Protein 1
Amino acid sequence: MRVTEQQYADLLAAGERAAAKAWQTGRGEVRAQPAPEAKRGASGKPLVARFIEREAGKGELVFVLPLPPQVISPNGRGHWAKKSRAVRQYREQCANLMRATHQPPLSPGRVVIDLEFYLCRVANDRTSLYPRDEDNARGAMKAAQDALKDAALIAGDGKDFVRMGKTTLYTQAKEHRGFTCVVMTLRKDEGE
């Protein structure tokens, strides 16, 4: 996801959690800067989350989102009010990040959503969900799927509009390469 420096500053000012420091390229884009290797906790885990950069292919929309809160897991057994509040906040956070990209809505028709979870554990992070299986990962991203509709990128989130595609969990160090985020890719459903 690329946003202008002003949009990035606005997101930070709005209280959105910054998971990575930002640096400005020569083209005026703000990108996630890798966390220095020296910033590690006593357990050897990184102290800050790093977001991966992903370019969209032709006919795709790509969003790099923070991990959902642990309380919104489908297996969560917390109080309903706490879960409802967390879902609402994560949905608003994702919708704000999606709106900040100024992407045009996808053309009418069914959309496939692919999810990639980069699950590098961050030191002292007890609030983010690190899913162990794909169905819980998909269930926890329902709020982000609803945010697509809130950001006016898709017409609806019912079965006529959205189909869940491939979900991949990168849990090993050689797979996640130190990144902690979710990459949501939207593409037109070719099966129509």
Protein 2
Amino acid sequence: MEKWPEKAIILWTFGKYYIIIFYDSNILTSDSMTSKDLGRGGEQMVEETIRTIKETENEAEGIIKKADAACTEILDNAKAEAAEMVGRAEAEAKSEAAAALEAAKEAGRKSEQEAMDSVEKEIATLKKDALAKESEVVSAVIEELV
């Protein structure tokens, strides 16, 4: 019986026959438990299997590259969307702050106007009272002088 390499994969079983892929010194070779029964058809099947494995590995590598590109695109889109959201939030906060400042200014102007109206009424009342008492004051001064 032949000495088999340490690394082997059983690909198919056909009743009592096995197709095995051996890895030996980084070279992929094929053999079977009963190699005399495999003949040329078995060798061709093994070659097709090896070719299929290599094609599958290439497809998997392509899928991994596409997934990596998709991941990068998703991350870039997420970063852009986050930056846009931050920009909108900042603009909204500035707008709200400006509106609150304008409301405070308007409230201040209204309070100032109310105070001015009150002072003007007070001044008008004092003038009216002063004019009403003017003749009394003039008469009192004249009496004091005489």
